[in-house]
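Standup notes, protein team

Yesterday: finished cleaning the Sulfurimonas diazotrophicus set.
Today: Triosephosphate isomerase structure.
Blockers: none.

Input for Triosephosphate isomerase:
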Amino acid sequence: MIIAANFKTNHTRAATKAYLAKVTAYIAEAEISDEVMVFPPATALCRSEGDVTVGAQNAWPTDNGAYTGEIGTEQLDEFGIHTILIGHSERRHILGESQEVVAEKFAYFKALGFRIVYCIGEPLEVRDAGSETLMAYLAEQLEGIDLGYGNLVIAYEPVWAIGTGRVPSENEIELIHGALAKLTKAPLLYGGSVKVGNVAPILALKHVDGALVGSGALDPDDFCKMIATAKQINKQEV
Ligand SMILES: O=C(CO)COP(=O)(O)O
């Protein structure tokens, strides 16, 4: 399984350092073999520590240049970062990133062999329009994306579930992940209001290979509890 924490615009460099120290110590002590990723803000980027992969929440498809406010691979290389989130709904909907830009980023980081956690998800009105509209919307978000890319992870994060405390039913998640599994062999993460209290039934669902967690993972102790749950579920599958 893959358990990932997206800090978004939270935590400082010092807080990230302390967070990683706690999580890496836990992983070693609990003999965790699941993949654990942490995406701090750009100002707190650092080298991967122990068995925790540190990834970037965003970067512009360039090595360097004139892109005010952005970072490129020159800044990622400083910390050996080779993992990136692309297509997160907050970048699509709040920051206005088009599918064209998202696909351009995908192509750029794919060419560099990055591990790409590619995010898709529908707003509430699309979900309410029924499963056909929903799947067509998700298909548009996959336009220009190589679903056969070996270093790809897909995160399904319904916009209406992000930061709201609302989660789709287990049936809904299974349906969408099942449809995605027909399109790609990439691991499929669920994201959107995942917490310590609901992570177990979500991770146990068919075609759910992990979770991408925002606010519920800001506390390292909570994140460690979720990692422990993933281990527990793996055991039950064996
Ligand atoms: O957007 C998310 C992770 O990328 C999910 O955020 P929350 O877990 O805060 O709902």
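Follow-up from PR in the comments: Strands lie at 2-6, 35-39, 52-54, 83-86, 115-120, 152-156, 188-191, 210-213.
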